[in-house]
Amino acid sequence: MVKPVTELKKGIVFREDGELWIVENYEHIKVARGSGTIKVKAQSMRSEAITEKSFMTGARVDIVDVFKKKATYLYREANKYFFMDTENFENYEIDGQMISSAKFLKDGMEVRVLIDDRSEIVGLELPKNEIYKITETAVGVKGNTVSNTNKKAILENGVEVSVPLFVNTGDVVKIDTRTGGYLERVK
């Protein structure tokens, strides 16, 4: 739906040159004489690249309604990921290139499938934090409980992350799925 650029706000999705962008930051710059400028920091929903875009105040953009549907991750086959809608049991097939955080998926994980106004799947939203079991890491050393030093660890889904020295094989940890960063050990 084509609307004035002034309706862009944080979290709004718009289409430009066939690509979907989500607004991260919005700034309206007014000048003394002449028209103002709208500057947005936007993230591509395909590549997750972040760029700054400028628009004249009178410009119009194609704002896209994006719906979120709860789904459960089922399995992966080659570069395709399969999910099931938790309400109507409809299955979704998503190309792996659309999911930058696919490595953090695990069986039965609840996610949100993003569907645009054309009924096309445009992305996937994982929970911000998820709990994983450590399957492999170097042995922790007694006394290394308050240190900034990290070591590599392998999660139950095969992803390698950096964890503090006191974390051991078999421990359960909370990981930020957006950054892959360690948050805390879960008891």
Fold blueprint:
Layout: E1 2-4, E2 13-16, E3 19-29, E4 37-44, E5 50-56, E6 60-64, E7 67-77, E8 80-85, E9 91-95, E10 110-115, E11 121-125, E12 129-137, E13 150-155, E14 160-164, E15 172-176, E16 182-186
Antiparallel strand pairs: 1-6, 2-3, 2-6, 3-4, 4-5, 7-8, 7-10, 8-9, 10-11, 12-13, 12-15, 13-14, 15-16
Walk me through the structure:
- It is flat, with a radius of gyration of 21 Å.
- The model has no long low-confidence stretch (mean pLDDT 87).
- The termini are far apart.
- It has strands spanning 2-4, 13-16, 19-29, 37-44, 50-56, 60-64, 67-77, 80-85, 91-95, 110-115, 121-125, 129-137, 150-155, 160-164, 172-176, 182-186.
- By secondary structure, the protein is mainly β.
- It has three domains: 2-64, Roll (SH3 type barrels), CATH 2.30.30.30; 67-125, Nucleic acid-binding proteins (OB fold (Dihydrolipoamide Acetyltransferase, E2P)), CATH 2.40.50; 129-186, Nucleic acid-binding proteins (OB fold (Dihydrolipoamide Acetyltransferase, E2P)), CATH 2.40.50.140.
- It has a six-stranded antiparallel β-sheet with strand order 1-6-2-3-4-5, with no helix packed on it. Strands 9-8-7-10-11 form a five-stranded antiparallel β-sheet, with no helix packed on it.
- It has no helices and 16 strands.
